[in-house]
Write a structure and sequence with these properties.
Layout (H helix, E strand, L loop, with lengths): L1 H13 L3 E5 L5 E6 L1 H5 L20 H9 L6 E8 L12 E8 L7 E7 L13 H13 L3 E6 L6 H4 L1 H18 L6 E5 L2 E6 L3 H17 L7 E6 L7 H16 L11 H24 L3 E10 L5 E10 L6 H9 L3 H21 L8 E6 L6 H13 L7 E6 L7 H13 L3 E7 L5 H7 L4 E4 L1 H5 L5 H16 L3 E4 L5 H9 L4 E3 L23 H11 L4
Parallel strand pairs: 11-12, 12-13, 13-14, 14-15, 15-16, 16-17
Antiparallel strand pairs: 1-2, 1-5, 3-4, 4-5, 6-8, 6-9, 7-8, 10-11, 10-17
Helix pairs in contact: 4-8, 6-7, 8-9, 11-12
The structure holds ligand C2E and calcium ion (2 copies).
The site of one calcium ion has 5 residues, from strand 14.
């Protein structure tokens, strides 16, 4: 079981396409993932084959060297490799990145992960992502470089309507930017129709090149609508960290479709804009909490086996009816989320109390979202435990979902708090499970009642064998650890059936009901589950808080 857990850790950690393990004779002992796209064989067909056969003969020595370089518990890679061709005359070799590690354990197997790399001919494949670009720009800023942001609205939707033309134009822009860039990481694609480059005084060359590309587009009936925005990167009076934040702010603002007019012209200006925005949002949020300018909404969570209501999740709604997602995230960033979380806790308890007073209604069962950050705040912890102590009779009816657990820095301390809560009879779930690479480590470090499987897994159900296998493995792992599972964002009956079939206990999503201002529930009929053995076992697990 431990080794299964570790496989998942390394797999999730690498976000790889294929995970495999190699025995001491070079034979593949275990394989999981999208093997077909890399090797022309399914993962189960790889078992027993020699791992070196996966790679192009010319790269096998480098692969052997990578393994030889590993100590008893080391990690090495990534190494760029070409995969073996499927047969004579087949497509050009697929490229992938290979990393290997040796995990501590009874068998000294080599664990390897392979991630497909974009084919050399993919347009824009040679440009980097936002974070690398921001870092490169900061470094170059010290040497007096400039940044030019390029917008080409004519590319929007072109990938669908005319993919060949889209590829050509994107490739032309990429090549132009890369050739002007100060280094390999200084040219980036920042969105479907947005690009950035850090360069030294190449404005004229860039403009000339872009004019040529505009003409080429026009000759083919496409109006690219190219525009550019130049920014000096010098730090002015900003420190290293401030410059990094300012560059990130400017680039994010551009990539999130800010109109060119609102972009800063220098990094000191970017920093001022950032601080202004932060202060305005901070004041807004403080007011929301102080004046309780928010409402609760309630989304049903049902037993997948019977379709019966299990409890409601409390979701905050601001007075303008908007999703709390952005505000909550911002409050986490600036470290004030715990005040909000506590306000939601007290409001939820009041909602349960007032329901208890209504004649003819059953007891209300609620789950509250708590940011992982709040769990690290000692004032919040004291208030929360006091609130639970005052309301001991709600044990078994009130549970907590820890969101943004990725931000937990001190897992041992968080676990202590979680156990204090559970000792009082209140269940604790980890939210968005599987979304962050670290989720699996939390299973080892935190004793919890269950996990909420992140909606991104549910959305991909039926999409690929690899994803389905991963989800099934994840649920099995939770079963082995004897913790409950909730699938969120269930929108279709097919998703619900799949989850039920693999042993997920509870489900939440638009299929069962959207969040509503009052906790009301209209039951829907669902077919009974196919596998009674799995169901019995998982249901037993849930009894802890029902
Ligand atoms: P979450 O806890 O993962 O909540 C699930 C989100 O998915 C909710 O969005 C919900 O309305 C939405 N959703 C539910 N079912 C479906 C579905 O079938 N399809 C789709 N597409 N969406 C569905 P919402 O209410 O906008 O909340 C967003 C996030 O904000 C929450 O994610 C949670 O992380 C945070 N949040 C909400 N209320 C609170 C709160 O009181 N305290 C804290 N700390 N965070 C909160
Ligand atoms: Ca939640
Ligand atoms: Ca979630």
């Amino acid at each position: 079981m431990r080794s299964q857990l570790q496989r998942f850790i390394s797999f999730a950690f690498a976000a790889a396409d294929l995970l495999f393990e190699v025995g001491d004779r070079g034979e593949i002992r275990f394989a999981l993932g999208a093997a077909l796209t890399l090797t022309d064989r399914r993962d189960d067909e790889l078992i027993g084959r020699n791992w070196l056969d996966l790679f192009d003969p010319a790269d096998r020595k480098a692969v052997r060297d990578l393994a030889a370089a590993l100590g008893p518990q080391g990690r090495s890679g990534p190494l760029e490799v070409r995969m073996a061709a499927a047969g004579p005359g087949s497509e050009p070799a697929r490229r992938a990145s290979l990393s290997a590690c040796r995990l501590a354990g009874p068998q000294e197997w080599l664990s390897c992960v392979l991630t497909a790399l974009p084919a050399a001919g993919d347009p824009g494949a040679d440009l980097v992502g936002i974070e690398d670009f921001v870092e490169a720009a900061c470094k170059a800023g010290e040497a007096g470089a400039n940044m030019t942001l390029v917008e080409a609205p004519g590319l929007v939707g072109l990938a669908q309507s005319n993919p060949a033309m889209c590829n050509t134009l994107v490739q032309r822009i990429s090549t132009l930017l890369r050739n002007s860039a100060v280094d390999g990481n200084a040219a980036a694609r920042l969105g479907e129709a947005r690009f950035g480059v850090t360069h030294r005084g190449s404005e004229t060359i860039l403009r000339k090149g872009l004019a040529d590309i505009t003409e080429e587009g026009a000759r083919n009936g496409i109006d690219l609508g190219l525009s550019t925005h130049d920014m000096a990167l010098d730090a002015g009076g900003l420190g290293q960290d401030e410059l990094l934040q300012a560059v990130r702010f400017a680039v994010n603002r551009f990539s999130a479709r800010g109109p060119a007019a609102a972009l800063p012209g220098s990094m000191t200006q970017a920093f001022e804009q950032m601080v202004d925005t932060a202060i305005r949002r901070m004041n807004d949020f403080a007011e929301v909490v102080r004046e309780e300018k928010f409402d609760l909404s309630f989304q049903p969570i049902v037993e997948l086996a019977t379709g019966a209501l299990h409890h409601f999740e409390v979701l905050a709604r601001f007075t303008d009816g908007t999703s709390p997602f952005e505000k909550v995230q911002f409050a986490e960033e600036i470290g004030v989320i715990e005040k909000f979380d506590f306000a939601v806790c007290t409001r939820s308890v009041s909602a349960m109390r007032s329901r208890d007073r209504e004649p003819g209604t059953g007891p209300l069962r609620l789950a509250i979202n708590l940011s992982g950050q709040s769990l690290e705040n000692s004032v919040f912890i004291r208030l929360l435990l006091a609130l639970l102590d005052e309301n001991r009779d709600l044990a078994g009816r009130l549970s907590l979902e820890i969101t943004e657990s990725a931000r937990l820095r001190d897992l041992a301390r968080a676990d202590q708090v979680i156990q204090e809560v559970r000792r009082r009879g209140f269940a604790v779930y980890l939210d968005d499970f599987g979304a962050g690479a670290a989720s699996f480590q939390y299973l080892q470090a935190l004793a919890i009642d269950g996990v909420k499987i992140d909606g991104s897994y549910i959305r991909r159900i039926g999409g690929s064998r690899r994803d389905d296998t991963l989800l099934r493995g994840l649920v099995r792992l939770c079963g082995d650890l004897e913790i409950g599972t909730i699938g969120e964002m269930v929108e279709t009956a097919a998703q619900s059936d799949f989850l039920r079939g693999i042993g997920v206990t509870l489900g939440q999503g638009w299929l069962f009901g959207k969040a509503a201002p009052t906790p009301v529930w209209t039951p829907k009929r669902l077919e009974p589950v196919a596998s009674p053995r799995l169901r019995g076992r998982r249901q037993g697990v849930m009894e802890s808080w029902s």
